[in-house]
Amino acid sequence: MLKEFPREFMMGAATAAHQVEGNNNNSDFWTMEHVPNSMYKEPSLEAVDHYNRFKEDILLLAKAGGNTYRFSIEWARIEPKKGFFNQEEVEHYREVLQYCHEHNVTPIVTLHHFSSPKWLISEGGWESEQTVQYFERYTRHIVLELGELIPYICTINEANMGKQIKKIMKRMEQKLNSSSNEKSDGSVQVGLNMDMKTKMKSYYQELGKAFDMDPSAIYTYLMPRSEQGEKIIMDCHQQARAIIKETAPHIKVGITFSLYDHQTLPGGEESVKKEQYEDFLCYLPAIQEDDFLGVQNYSRKIHGPDGVIASDDTTRLTKMGYEYYPEALGNVLRFVVKHWQKPIIITENGVSTDNDKERVEFIERALKGVQDCMDEGIPVIGYTYWSLLDNFEWQLGYEQTFGLIAVDRETQTRYPKESLTFLGSHIKSVIKKDSSSLK
């Protein structure tokens, strides 16, 4: 049985702009979705029209009892052309933030959730040192315009994702000349299309044209991330943090990481240490001045003498191909607290499944792990389930179903699931709303 959470605990759900808003046509992902021979199974198009229906979606969350909403501001909307800031888009996000406050929902804003302005990629993207200055400028603009409405900022979503994608793409490259394509095994916590053998070269050529870049440069961009790129990402974070602290010191600043529960069998200890260092520990020097850490977890990896052990026919899998293992979250929190004693927000945790009873079970077991960790003294201050809505899962398109709310994309009608009712009922019973606490 779940116990009561502390009154101040933040509980809710999360989204990312490109995955839900629709018509993000100045972004790099929109370009990648629409070129000939695209690796994307389908384009995002109108997505689930959250851009126009955010009030309906936030209200569904709030009426269910949710008191927190994590969402991203889309850089490609704010600065669609280099140096040009679109005030209408700034006002759109002002309206989103104000609507959250009006309904006693604490907004947690992510400044960069994977998607970037198309022009940024043409300028060299996240492998160019200039990007640090561009991100700094964008951050300053957001904070000056909207900072008074923002209590929490995640600068960059899953800053370690480049390494995780690089690992799986290296394995995929090794398969290119084999007789079969590698299928998803859940070894990276984002939607990647593995059916790439026949498309890859032509895809790079088309992207080179679209971004006005040499195809070899595009290859570097799509194979994130070099050591230089790793440094640039963390420089962007640190510069953004400095600007936020200088401009709006009331805002709590953090970053999010994709973290697995790494478990070891005899002989797998060195493999675990290596992955834990690459996933998290190597970033510690750059985040020491942060106010909180965003932890994102979906599953575990089991390591043996030869590295990660593949799942077998007896393993319970999610629709994404991850092992169904909600207890991973609590284990990750226990690992993190050994190296990080400041507040932790679980900024993503969830499951893709067509059986919503599995989602209810997942949430209950994951939250039990969170409560156990809090009882042990781990400073967890929030949990935002991924995702509020069934949405666009990057290269995999719309086939994945993480959401607490289903959407008929022909009519954009919302259908709240039992899991939203479960999460919301639990929140209402343990968290008393108090509008006077919002400032």
Automatic annotation (TrEMBL):
Record bears the keyword Hydrolase: yes
Organism this protein belongs to: Alkalicoccobacillus plakortidis
Residue ranges the record marks as coiled coil: none
InterPro entries, per the entry: GH, Glyco_hydro_1
Cross-referenced SUPFAM superfamilies: (Trans)glycosidases
Superkingdom assignment: Bacteria
Keyword Hydrolase in annotation: yes
Name of this protein: Family 1 glycosylhydrolase
Record's keyword terms, sorted: Glycosidase, Hydrolase
UniProt record similarity statement: Belongs to the glycosyl hydrolase 1 family.
Signal peptide: none
